[in-house]
Design brief:
Elements (H helix, E strand, L loop, with lengths): L4 H12 L12 H12 L7 E3 L10 E6 L14 H15 L6 E6 L4 H14 L4 E8 L2 E5 L2
Parallel strand pairs: 1-2, 2-3, 3-4
Antiparallel strand pairs: 4-5
Helix pairs in contact: 1-2, 3-4
């Protein structure tokens, strides 16, 4: 399992609940920030988070979260998978190249066309940084090999 899978599991819990049959809940961009702050812990310092309500300089760790399921339906600010990967590439191969050493992509929708579009960028980033991808499903979190 990935080093940062607990963060994806925390988002899963917020989306689907702890009890079986709870069904989907509503999760805002602010909620994602709160969840990441709690699950990642204060001892790790600041993180970059996409999407987020605030901005910060380049951090050692960045999370790119794409939620498109019923828990994000018609809520502003959520990223589609392609958008999250675009932010990943801009961040990791752009202004924060060499500064951010861990990049975690958390999604509930693996879009094959988007993954194909950004695949070689992801592989290139993985040569110099730790890259992890986790898929949120109604049944739990699955690590996606890259």
């Amino acid at each position: 399992m990935g080093e940062f899978i607990r963060s994806a599991e925390a988002i899963f819990q917020a989306c689907w609940g702890i009890e079986e049959g709870d069904g989907a809940r509503r999760v805002s961009v602010k909620d994602i920030g709160d969840i990441m702050g709690e699950s990642f812990g204060e001892g790790h310092g600041m993180i970059n988070l996409y999407p987020s309500e605030g901005k910060t300089g380049c951090c050692d760790t960045a999370f790119f979260v794409s939620l498109t399921g019923p828990y994000a339906y018609r809520m502003k600010g959520h990223l589609k998978f392609d958008q999250a990967l675009g932010h990943f590439v801009q961040h990791m191969q752009g202004g924060c190249r060499g500064i951010t050493r861990s990049a975690i992509i958390i999604t509930d929708s693996l879009e094959p066309n988007a993954l194909a579009k950004w695949y070689w960028n992801i592989k290139e980033v993985g040569k110099n940084a730790y890259v992890e991808m986790n898929l949120i499903t109604p049944g739990g979190v699955l690590p996606i090999p890259l």
